[in-house]
Design goal:
Arylsulfatase, C-terminal domain, 8-stranded mixed β-sheet, globular, 14 strands, 13 helices, single chain, Alkaline Phosphatase, subunit A, alpha/beta, 4-stranded antiparallel β-sheet
């Protein structure tokens, strides 16, 4: 054991020396964003049957973050946090489909000012006002892709094409090849996969229903297993394009000093996952590979948040963070996974198809959730409401055959406060908020959340944005608004562009 520890220590020391020696050469950065992929739905994070050889390869060559979290489990607000380093309620784009306002500062223009060439390719979902922060944007959303709505909706294109087009990944490698060769670069590569809706034939060898790992808050039914299997297929398709990017970095001979970050914007699009503040919604499969600095096969169990990505990337580029950033530089974890960057993470739930407002604080061992929307059921996103899984759950509900854990999406009112012991209850099924043994823990977590809300000017609105979809069928309501308009961001000083 002592010889093994000595070898690891020597390897880490060598990496630290190498990293210090390369201080004058800032790393290239490739940020890959999956769309609606749960933290534990890959081989790298322990799933026994999903085929993800390239995501696994990325983790084997880099660092796996076991406690990485999103600020919200909703697509566009989550991306707004990543690019601005701010909590959703401070970006002016805290609700789904709200475009990021032009006055927001992003880390991208800071990298550009530091000499980086910056590009985005694939799913965009941030609005038009911040596209000018990049040197190049190849937006799959405006190139013939659209998400259909309504019963039996499917992803559509203007013309049939290969899986790369369907997943939004067809420009990932071309953008990497088209970069100027005399500058460091930053790439924002975003996929549509594994966002709903699902169909057969996504990959040549589909996953089988028996491959599905069904969590306890979903019923173990053939419909649910088939739904999960099709979701797995889109993860495998995404994995293929991750591999293409890694191969291209190797072909260009630049992998050694390129930081590749992989994560998802929110949890899987199933009931009690996406849009919730449970770990199934806000925990993300963050992986970092940077051979010049990060030891292969390393793991970090410390808390990190996606609000930390912006200050981290600027620190690596040798650039000071913007005054508006609310996250913390977590790059020290790359060489010292035991360093403590933060004691808690914060997350929020806002409008996503349905009226919603909740806040959460999570430590390494406990989670506290405050539900301002406790008078409403925890309805999943509209596309998940239309899914085979939710249709089957409705039938079981009507027959009185759902377990208490599986009824969560249908119950109203719900508890206003929730407290979970994550060490003993990882699926967050046993609410301890009313248990006298946890009175002190509840009070401490409540104070921590209140402090964060005060510091970030998180004031509750007088009214919540109304439902735009039916909660039973997922069909659009007559009051549905498109396009949704950006709001001016509230929050601390320094929140807008100079």
């Amino acid at each position: 054991m002592s010889l093994r520890l000595s070898a690891i220590s020597l390897a880490l020391l060598s990496l630290a020396i190498l990293g210090a020696g390369q201080a004058a050469a800032p790393p290239n950065v490739v940020l890959i964003i999956a769309d609606d992929m749960a933290w534990d739905d890959s081989g790298a994070f322990g799933h026994p049957r999903i085929r993800t050889p390239n995501i696994d390869r990325l983790a084997h060559a880099g660092m796996r973050f076991d406690r990485a979290f999103l600020t919200t489990s909703s697509c566009s607000p989550s991306r707004s946090t990543i690019i601005t380093g701010r909590y959703p309620h401070n970006t002016g784009a805290e609700e789904l489909h709200l475009p990021l306002p032009a006055e927001q500062v992003t880390f991208v223009e800071k990298l550009k000012a530091a000499g980086y060439w910056t590009a985005a390719a694939g799913k965009w979902h941030l609005g038009n006002a911040v596209k000018d922060r990049f040197n190049l944007v190849r937006d799959a959303n405006s190139a013939g892709y659209q998400l259909a709505t309504g019963k039996n909706a499917q992803r559509k294109m203007t013309a049939a094409g290969p899986g790369a087009i369907q997943s939004g990944c067809d420009q990932w490698v071309p953008v990497l090849r088209d970069r100027p060769k005399d500058k460091p670069f930053f790439l924002w590569l975003a996929s549509f996969d594994p966002h709903r809706d699902y169909q057969d034939g996504t990959i040549p060898t589909p996953h089988r229903p028996e491959d599905a790992v069904v969590p306890p808050y979903l019923p173990d039914l053939p419909e649910v297993r088939s739904d999960l299997a099709r979701y797995y297929d889109e993860i495998t398709r995404l994995d293929h394009f991750v591999g293409d990017v890694l191969d291209e970095l190797d072909r260009q001979g630049i992998a050694q000093n390129t930081l590749v970050l992989f994560l998802s914007d929110n949890g899987r699009p199933f009931p009690r996952c996406k849009t919730t503040l449970y770990d199934s919604g806000i925990r993300t499969p963050l992986i970092a590979r940077w051979p010049a600095r990060i030891a292969a096969g390393s793991r970090c169990e410390r808390l990190v948040s996606t609000v930390d990505i912006a200050p981290t990337l600027l620190a690596l580029a040798g650039t000071a963070p913007a005054a508006s950033f609310q996250g913390k530089d977590f790059s020290p974890l790359f060489t010292n996974p035991d360093a403590r960057i933060r004691d808690v993470i914060h997350a929020e739930r806002n409008w996503h198809d349905y009226a919603a407002r909740a806040r959460a604080v999570r430590s390494e061992t406990f989670k506290y959730i405050l539900n301002d929307d406790h008078d409403r059921p925890l309805t999943p996103p509209a596309d998940a409401v239309r899914s085979p899984t939710f249709v089957a759950m409705r039938k079981l509900r009507d027959a009185g055959k759902l377990t208490p854990e599986q009824r969560t999406c249908f119950i109203a009112p719900r508890p206003r406060e929730e407290l979970y012991d994550l060490a003993h209850d990882p699926h967050e099924l046993n609410n301890l908020a009313g248990d006298p043994k946890y009175t002190q823990t509840l009070a401490a977590m409540r104070r921590t959340l209140e402090k964060w809300q005060h510091e970030t000017a998180d004031a509750a609105p007088e009214t919540l944005s109304p439902d735009e979809f039916d909660r039973e069928t997922g069909e659009p309501l007559p009051n549905r608004i498109r396009p949704r308009r950006a709001r001016r961001a509230p929050g601390p000083a320094g929140s807008t562009r100079p």
